[in-house]
Design a protein that fits this description.
- This protein is an alpha/beta fold.
- 39% of the residues lie in helices and 15% in strands.
- The protein has two domains: 3-146, Nitrogenase molybdenum iron protein domain (Rossmann fold, 3-Layer(aba) Sandwich), CATH 3.40.50.1980; 167-302, Nitrogenase molybdenum iron protein domain (Rossmann fold, 3-Layer(aba) Sandwich), CATH 3.40.50.
- It has helices spanning 8-16, 53-65, 75-81, 99-108, 124-137, 141-162, 187-193, 212-218, 232-236, 239-243, 252-255, 264-268, 275-286, and strands at 3-5, 23-26, 43-45, 71-73, 85-89, 115-119, 170-176, 181-182, 197-198, 222-225, 259-262, 300-302.
- Strands 7, 8, 9, 10, 11 and 12 form a six-stranded mixed beta sheet that branches. The protein has a four-stranded parallel beta sheet with strand order 2-1-5-6, sandwiched between helices.
- Strand 7 (170-176) and strand 8 form a beta hairpin.
- The longest helix is centred in the middle third of the chain and has 22 residues, at 141-162.
- The chain starts with a strand and ends with a strand.
- 45% of the residues are buried.
Length: 306
């Protein structure tokens, strides 16, 4: 079977199922496991990725307002690869290549008549459904059920320990810095499972925009900055925007050094098998008395400049 994955999370799902050798191509964002970067890329963004988060936001909005997709699919290359299955998504056309892009490319050029499998991970439960969908498409349904059970067991173990915490801190997860966006979809559920009280964003719904005043008025105990598509180093470049805000220094989370920068690109923004590691990271941040900092430095750091 020849598989093309156009989402980073579906690439990870394929590999977690033990079917990585079936992959013949990937999206420009697929980078885990590391060996997949050797596969040919069949997508590219239509906008420049440099600059501040505000500049990137403006470029994306300008493309979307014109009714265009923000990513380009190489239909000719897809045709040459002769895929049997193409994995894509319909959850967010800003986050990854959309079903519309793929269907357009397939209709125009792909002669192998591949099966298009579209994932839609709006909530945590949808991640399990999507793993099962990929497993079914690859003919390894039983392996999919085993993987789901393993991942859910790990999540249950973290949640059980988090429930023993003496307190539940309030939490603001920031998915974009300028303009401010809170984390939605599966993230509110992960915060609750990690032993926190989620202040912004609603489980199963897209990430909402928020104002700086709203952030301050809620006075979160913990702030986790995990911009979509950014690693820790890139996220820290935009933090001066927050630090310049008049009320920033007065926030309890800032005063008590409970502001954290995390790798949103590799973890929190990817609805695949590593959603479990995302939960483990949150648990470490919210309850260090219960969870040793196994992921510190590599996947999260305390404060903007520490």
């Amino acid at each position: 079977m020849r598989v093309v994955s156009l989402i980073a999370s579906s690439t990870e799902i394929v590999c977690a199922l033990g079917e990585g050798e079936q992959l013949v191509a990937r999206s420009h964002e697929c980078d885990f496991p590391a060996w997949v970067t050797k596969l040919p890329k069949v997508t590219e963004p239509k906008f420049a990725l440099d600059g501040t988060s505000y500049q990137i936001d403006q470029r994306v909005k300008a493309i979307v307002q014109e009714g265009l997709s923000v990513y380009r699919v190489d239909a000719a290359q897809l045709d040459a690869l002769e895929p049997d299955v193409i994995l894509t998504q319909s959850q967010c056309e800003v986050c990854a290549v959309s079903t519309r892009d793929v269907e357009d490319a397939v209709c125009r050029m792909v002669s192998s008549k591949p099966r298009i499998v579209s994932l839609e991970p709006n909530a945590l439960e949808d991640v399990w459904r999507d793993i099962a969908k990929v497993a079914d498409a690859l003919g390894v349904a039983e392996r999919g059920r085993t993987l789901i059970a393993e991942l859910q067991g790990r999540i249950d173990a973290v949640a059980a320990r988090a429930r023993t915490a003496a307190s539940r801190p309030t939490v603001a997860c920031i998915e974009w810095v300028e303009p401010l966006m809170a984390a939605g979809n599966w993230m509110p559920t992960l915060v609750e499972l990690a032993g926190g009280v989620n202040l912004f964003g609603e489980a199963g719904k897209h990430s909402p925009w928020m104002s700086f005043d709203e952030l301050c008025d809620k006075a979160p105990d913990v702030i986790v900055i995990l911009p979509c598509g950014y690693d820790i180093a890139r996220a820290r470049q935009d933090l001066p925007y927050l630090e310049r805000q008049p009320r920033w220094a007065s926030l309890a989370a800032v005063r008590e050094r409970r502001v954290f920068v995390a790798d949103g690109n590799q973890y929190f923004n990817r609805p695949g098998p590593r959603v479990v590691e995302s939960l483990e990271i949150l648990a470490e941040l919210l309850h260090p008395e219960l969870f040793p900092p196994r992921h510190a430095d590599a996947y999260w750091r305390a404060g903007a400049h520490e």
